[in-house]
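Handout for the seminar on molecular recognition.
Each group receives one record of this type.
Step one: identify the two inputs.
Step two: read the structure output and locate the region that could contact zinc ion.
Step three: write two sentences on what you found, then compare them with the reference statements printed after the record.
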Amino acid sequence: MQIVFLGTGGSWPSKNRNVSAVAVRIGRDVLLFDCGEGTQRQLMGSNVSFMKINRILISHFHGDHFLGLPGLVQSMSLNNRKKTLEIYGPTGTVKLVNIIINLGYFIPTFHFIVKDLKDNDTVKCDGYIIKAKTAEHNVPTLAYAVEEDTRPGRFNVKKAKKLGIPEGPFFRKLQKGGNITVNGRRITSDMVLGKPRKGKKIVYISDTKPSGAIADFAKGSNVLIHDATADSSLEKKANKYGHSSARQAAMIAKKAGAKILFLTHISPRYEDAGVLEKDAKKVFPNSVVAEDFLEYDVK
Ligand SMILES: [Zn+2]
Ligand SMILES: [Zn+2]
């Protein structure tokens, strides 16, 4: 899994930050969380091919999170995309994509799968699932978790050989969790596999006030990407508009037991977001202010 931050600013673009968009590479898929205005230009400057994006998940319909969609889908069409594009988001997504498809003289070269998601909905994908959770913003907003499927434990070659299992197809079957019979003896995969390996989990939430439900949702995440619009001196104001301070994002990360926190949706008022990182680190030391084009490999 790799995360590529394409836009880390809130509300409107600044000199150093474009508005919200985060790409996630997982297996053969490329997911895009939010698509603020100018996201396609950011994609051109990143190592993510815009043609390879196969699922777009919009958090909510404030302009800084979706206005890049019309341009992006038109560019995909101009490049003769044939692959179906999936778009998910809160209530209103189907309606919005319909408007986008019928905008101007645009005729898409590909099909769309579009779905409105509700609280606790899941999207089953190849090797992972995407979960949606209602956030606390001032319009319907969803947080998303990407969770890899649990993988079978490590295959113990020594043990397998000791049991007299010949290498080859039998090994492969056991590695996949299957059972075999060798010389009339039944051998089950748990005899040669270690403990099942839990998949990685990343959570993306922008925008939200601090929310206990989101902390629960983010429980055990390897990576939490969280709204951190303001520093702690502006906390009340940030909360009033349905946002979190960096300090509050750090409290959520701590509560969730996340491994690393990326602060995003940084207000354009901060030319230097160092104050946000400092605020957050006091509560949750492994806090990082996300920057446009930052890449992070989830190990
Ligand atoms: Zn926003
Ligand atoms: Zn918003």
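Reference statements: The radius of gyration is 22 Å. The CA atoms of residues 46 and 293 lie 6 Å apart.
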